[in-house]
Design brief:
The structure is a single chain. About 35% of the residues lie in helices and about 20% in strands. With about 140 residues, the chain is α+β, with helices and mostly antiparallel strands. The chain has one domain. It has a five-stranded antiparallel β-sheet. The longest helix has 23 residues. The chain is globular.
């Protein structure tokens, strides 16, 4: 599946996580990088184990709930032998991000969920005020 992506600049009151825009099935969808969400939630387990387990446990669908893009990690400073490593970045819809935050059942999860709800409200308000905003653009609720 061919994917297009770009970072969308969004002015929100609180910037816990960067909102990105990706194309899923010919519709632009607002997403967050799940690595950033994982780090924010302060879970204490490694990212890959966490994201794969959550995708399986909650039946999230590739291309509908999330998009996997290949990337490169930055080498660690101070280590001459460090090299960039190939990574898989999971960009998840705001609906998926809210659900993941909610199932963690901790204060950071509640904070992240409230943040995503606020992001959706502000993005919806921005899009409804824009005359060029497509009316059939699917929005998370």
């Amino acid at each position: 599946m061919a994917a297009q992506s770009h970072t969308q600049v969004v002015n929100l009151n609180s910037n816990l996580l960067t909102i990105h825009s990706h194309v899923f099935n010919e519709h632009s969808i607002d997403t967050v990088n799940s690595r950033d969400l994982h780090a924010f939630l302060e879970l204490g387990c490694d990212f890959v184990t966490w994201i794969k387990a959550r995708i399986c446990q909650y039946d999230f669908v590739d291309g509908e709930d999330y998009l996997i893009l290949d990337g490169l990690s930055s080498p660690k400073r101070g280590n001459a032998k460090s090299r960039s490593q190939k990574t898989k970045d999971y960009f998840i819809t705001l609906d998926m991000a809210k659900e993941l935050a909610m199932v963690e059942r901790n204060e950071k999860g509640r904070e992240a969920r409230r943040y995503f709800i606020n992001c959706e409200r502000q993005l919806k308000a921005t899009n409804s005020n824009s005359p060029a905003a497509p009316s059939d653009r699917p929005r998370s609720t």
